[in-house]
Amino acid sequence: MMKFDFLFQSSPWFIPLCFLLAGLYAFVLYQKNTNWTKKQNYLMATFRFLAVSILSMLLLSFLIRQVSQKIQKKTVVLAIDNSQSMNVVGAKVLEDLKKNLNDLKESLQEKDYEVAFATFNEENTQNLEKLQFNQKTSNLSNLLSGIKNTFEDQNLTDVVLISDGIVNEGIAPASESFKFPVHTIGLGDTIPKKDLAVKTVYANKIAYLGNKFPVQTDITSFGFEGKTANVYLKQGAKFLEKQTITFNQKEDLKTLTFNTTATQIGVQHFTVEVDFLSGEFSNRNNRQEVYIEVIDGKEKILLLALAPHPDVKALKSIIEKNENYELDVKILTENANPEITKSYDLLILHQLPDAYNTYANVFKPLLDKGIPTFFVMGNQSGVNNLNQLNQVMQINADFGENDKVTGIFNKNFKVLNFETEQMDIITKFPQISVPFGDYTLLPNSEVLLYQRVGAVQTQKPLLAMNIGAKKSAIFTGEGLWAWRLEEYQLNEKQVVIDDVISKVLQYISAKDDKRKLRVYPLKTPLSLGEKVVFETEIYNAIYEKLYNLPIKLTIKDEKGFTRNYTYSTSADNTKFEISGLPAGVYRFNASATVLGKSEQSIGEFVNQDLQIENINLTADFDVLRQVSNKTGASFFHKNEFEKLKQKILSHDVPDKIEATEDLKEMINLRWIFFLILTLLTAEWVMRKYLGGY
């Protein structure tokens, strides 16, 4: 349905004036002409009158509003839980389910309903014959929220959720609010089966070569009271340790801890497995895998401080949060000649150099080695001496002249990723002491935090980094400890300032990658069934990107089986995809000839077989009933589709009208132009035909 009306941008009294002027013009033009008949005069005068009337009204800038209305069909969404746990009901039940859903769809469409399907992965949802129950997690709240967002503007009357009620990801679906009724159909068996399961496996993501580390696991049982079972820890095909447990009650849980030693560098694949006992319902949940990265030592950091200071303790606390760091702290006023025998990856100088450059013999040799350095200033810092040592900034200030400032995040800083909204908390931190003077950034330097005096942001850096070949950073303030205390007071956690310092340390200590060939997976770990996508970068001598070079890629699994691939890249596509890999740890070697020289890139990735869906195989219809009760809907069993159909059809919902409004200026309508052209052309042709000039 469509309707029109006019909107006036000037007084409507001008319309009669337009008609009056057009009529007067036509009357004056044709009333004295006696060469034509009266009828011919009237006809041509009418053409002129209409054309001039329309033209004059166009000058009034009329608006034409076009409103179209459409009645939306009632929509029903059939949401299907297509997770792996649904396979427990058997292939016959799932085939019957697909048939019943198709029949329900056809019955509703005959009643002029729109019917749509929804699943976890949104694939093949219109052709149920191709629907696979293979999703590795069940997130019912996310499924219903997706329907809510997708059909927000449509006449959604009912949603039907078909599920076993098992939720292992996201929040409970009944905790969310939905404006549409959610009818539920329960599949599966709510009676627990005799079963053993490796419920969880706990382990650190990182272990260090040669160190012992724990692997903890929870084993659950139902119906095996008085029985014993063996639990194994394996690495690949090798058995590392076995423990025997006895279940004391019908429903039991046992926690075990295995201690093993990291013997190989790289990602290592461990498996926890429990015996399959006679009478057990399923063995799919009798094992779980865990992947641990074994690294050869930690990144070593040396913190040299002029004297004891709360900022030194604050830095120590921040660094020790990262288990990949090994920190040594040396206070020079307590030991003027500390023994430095290690090779360090990062140097932190607190209030060094001082005004008298007292301990230059300690830190200068380290700086000369090119170790990345983070300077943290204080009231005892020697500004002139610092200017000679750093490549970040120059400060023109007299010793002892300080200013009180707060910090403010530089929103144009793009070297590291920070959430701008989170960084706003820095403006609430207490004032800290900085040298009072002029600051000049050196080439390749970027400001992360500016100094803020009161409510005024200055252009003086508070925290800046040199991102050139020799990375370094300077924090010009004294009072880092007070910032951490204030953040804890505000949020009961210390996140923002710790994140800033940690990322700065990671960036300046990171080794530059000078390889001409770089091949790496975009995501790791992967879940079984996902494609592994390799990104490829090839560079010439001045690190301009190259393309169309053949690359050989070799992938080896834990058993030593090798897969070989060859591909090339282009400016439009630098990725290479591989699918169908079994679960496990894979090591790859990519090689190419770049400008006559052989280049290599090696690495590893993990393909995990998540067993979340196999841990719990007992249906939970209470979850489904809660969702239906909360939304004013009903719960049905798998053989009650006819009742469900009648329930949907009895849901009396008013039609929803969708209206769209289109506002146009009259002068922009093409048909107006052609109407005027037609009127004037008809008049001209008639005058010429009658011998007029």
Q: What is this structure, in a nutshell?
A:
By secondary structure, this protein is α/β, with parallel strands linked by helices. Helix content is 24%, strand content 36%.
Task: Characterise the protein shown here.
- By secondary structure, the chain is α/β, with parallel strands linked by helices.
- A nine-stranded mixed sheet has the order 16-15-17-18-23-22-21-19-20, sandwiched between helices. It has a five-stranded parallel sheet with strand order 4-3-5-6-32, with helices on both faces.
- Strand 27 and strand 28 (562-567) form a beta hairpin.
- The longest helix has 21 residues, at 38-58.
Helix content: 10-25%
Low-confidence stretches: none
Taken as a percent bin, the fraction of beta residues is 35-45%
Alpha carbon gap, first and last residue:
48 Å
**Strands, count:** 33
> Mind summarizing the main beta sheet?
9 strands, mixed
Mean pLDDT level: 87
Shape: extended
Output the structural class: alpha/beta
Rg calculated over all Cα atoms: 38 Å
Order of strands, widest sheet: 16-15-17-18-23-22-21-19-20
Determine the number of helices (DSSP H or I, runs of at least 4 residues).
Answer: 14
How does the SSE layout of this entry go?
Elements: E1 2-7, H1 14-30, H2 38-58, E2 63-72, E3 74-80, H3 91-110, E4 113-118, H4 140-150, E5 156-163, E6 182-186, E7 195-203, E8 206-208, E9 212-222, E10 228-235, E11 238-246, E12 251-261, E13 266-274, E14 287-295, E15 299-305, H5 310-319, E16 325-331, E17 346-350, H6 360-368, E18 373-376, H7 383-389, E19 393-409, H8 420-423, E20 432-441, E21 445-453, E22 456-466, E23 472-475, H9 480-491, H10 496-509, E24 517-521, E25 526-527, E26 532-538, E27 551-556, E28 562-567, E29 575-578, E30 584-594, E31 597-608, H11 612-615, H12 621-630, E32 635-637, H13 641-649, E33 656-665, H14 670-689
Parallel strand pairs: 3-4, 3-5, 5-6, 6-32, 8-14, 15-16, 15-17, 17-18, 18-23, 25-31
Antiparallel strand pairs: 1-2, 2-33, 7-9, 9-12, 10-11, 10-13, 13-14, 19-20, 19-21, 21-22, 22-23, 24-26, 26-29, 27-28, 27-30, 30-31
